[in-house]
Every structure is written in C-alpha cells, then in structure tokens.
Amino acid sequence: MKDTSALALQRLSHVYVGDKGASLAVEDIDLSVAKGEFVSLVGPSGCGKTTLLSLMAGLFPPTAGKVLLGGEPVKGPTPKVGYMLQQDYLFPWRSIRDNAAIGLEIQGSKSKASMKRVDEWLKELGLEGLGGRFPHELSGGMRQRVALARTMVTEPEVLLLDEPFSALDLHIKMQLEDVVVETLRKLGKTAVLVTHDLSEAAAMSDRVIVLGKNPGHIRKEIKVPDEIKSADPITARKLPGFQVLFEELWAELNAVDRKEGGGDA
Ligand code: ADP
Ligand code: MG
Questions:
Q1: Per-residue pLDDT tens over the stretch 122-133
Q2: pLDDT digits (tens, 9 = 90+) for 193-202
Q3: CB of 204 within 8 A of CB of 37?
Q4: Are 253 and 203 a contacting pair, CB within 8 Å?
Q5: CA 45 – ligand 2 centroid, Å
Q6: What pTM was estimated for this model as a whole?
Q7: What is the pLDDT of residues 35-90, one digit of tens each?
Q8: Which residues are CB-contacts of 115 (< 8 A; sequence separation ≥ 6)?
Q9: 233 and 203 in contact (C-beta within 8 Å)?
C-alpha cells in the first residue's frame, strides 16, 4: 500500500563506519508523520536524533530501510525539506536580505518574485526594515528569525528543526517557539523537532517520540492532548494538563536513563 504520510521512516537503520569500526546508531525505526503534523524527538545524547534528521533530509542514505517523502523514496537532499539548526550559519559579510536569499541562490531560483517573498518573510517574522543590516548587528533571537526566513523562503513541505532554540535566552526562545508554531500551522507545514527541552517538546508538538539508545530506537510515543495541542506554546504551558504531560515525558526519559545507563539529556 502506498504511504500517504508527509514523511515516513520504514524499518530504518543506520550504521556509521569509521576508523574504529562500525557502530549501529539507530535500529529499526518506524515513524509516520502526517501532513501538517508537528512531531518532536527527545532522548539522551547519542540516541540518534541528529542521525534521524540527516536521513530524513537525504544527507546520506540509510544502511537499511527507507525514508519516504509524500510516498516517494528520498534519494538525496531536496528543496521539499528545509533544515534549521542550533547555529544560524548566517554569512557575516552578507546583509540580512542576502542571507535570507541564499537558499534561493543555491536552488537557482532567485528572481524578482522570489526576492519579494524574501521581503515578505522578513516582514512576517518581525524583521521589516532590517534587510540591509548585517548579522553582527542582530541579537541571537533575531538571527534565528533570519535563519527561519531563509528556510521558509524556499517553500519546503517538511521542516526539520535540530535544537534551533537551545542557544537562546528563555523569553526569546519562547517567543520564537510561538512564531514557529504559528507560521507552520498557518501554512499547514509538517515539522520534526529535535530538542533537549521537554517543556518545549510538550508545548510545540502534536506528538512526542521518546528515543532510547545503544542503538537508537523508539521507546514510546506520547500524544499531546487536544487542548494543549491547539494552544500556542506560551499558553499551552499554563494549561492544567501541561504539568501532567511534562511529568509523563520526564518519567519516560528517566526510565531511559535507568535502563540504558545514562546520557545527559
Ligand atoms: P544525538 O543527536 O541523539 O545526540 P547522533 O545522531 O548524533 O545522536 O549520534 C547517534 C550515535 O551515532 C552516537 O553513538 C554517535 O556517536 C554516533 N555517530 C554520530 N555521527 C557519527 C559519525 N559521523 N561517525 C560515527 N559515528 C557517529
Ligand atoms: Mg544531535
């Protein structure tokens, strides 16, 4: 049967081969993400979160199993997938506007129309009038907004977020979480977020996947209750059910630690 989810991992395993031999990073991962769904991956350091995102992005092929994007096997990097990382990787010598346009340049789709989209995204993300500035003139939160604009401008269907908020101060981080959720919801985009922050996972997601390690595997899937899911992340944290959800995630991660001897998540 054809898989109709936006993103699917089927019996996915990955072995890294290096000087010190081969190591199984993730084993037998099955995961389907529906169009418009927001899924978070949490788990101890080394459980394979970044490996899974890299496989989803087609950065390298899996050792076994498949990654499907809209039912089609992923064969390499594709403009359908956008990636946002902890570091913003803005080029210091380029203006904000030119940084936001870099994905378009790489894709060869820079044009008057697409540059108009750059300006619209800068405006949408609260950066209006800052296009002529340079990265060093902006705060960390603003720079991550530029990174988000750069990603959104290329109109990906799926967004992969690898701890994009973890270097930010708490209130800036929470503001940005709200901006990201609102933006993705409005456009019906699909997202997979990796985070160390359980409260962030609980506040932003429709579903949280708890991974265990040695090798990386799915331990548990926790569905976020509707009430929390439909609220924006700042409001979600204040809802009565939020603490219960947080405790559930916390207990599950502690169970990973006890069973698998640690990790520093
Ligand atoms: P996480 O993002 O959850 O911390 P990673 O996906 O980075 O986990 O790593 C999963 C496992 O794969 C770890 O044991 C890590 O040491 C190993 N690993 C990650 N990248 C490489 C690589 N390029 N070469 C060899 N081993 C790697
Ligand atoms: Mg990682």
A1: 999 999 999 999
A2: 999 999 999 9
A3: no
A4: no
A5: 7
A6: 0.94
A7: 999 999 999 999 999 999 999 999 999 999 999 999 999 999 999 999 998 889 99
A8: 97, 101, 104
A9: yes
CA gap 173, 176 in Å, rounded: 5
* Structural domain spans, the chain: 1-73+192-265
CA of 15 to the centre of ligand 1 (A): 10
Report which ligand 1 atom has the smallest distance to the Cα of 23: 26
Kindly list the protein residues whose Cβ atom lies closer than 6 A to any atom of ligand 1. 16, 18, 23, 25, 45-51, 216
- d(Cα 154, Cα 118) in Å, to the nearest integer? 9
Ramachandran region of residue 11, left (φ > 0), alpha (ψ -120 to 50) or beta? left
- What is the rounded distance in angstroms from the CA atom of residue 208 to the CA atom of residue 249? 8
Superfamily assignment of 1-73+192-265 in CATH? P-loop containing nucleotide triphosphate hydrolases (3.40.50.300)
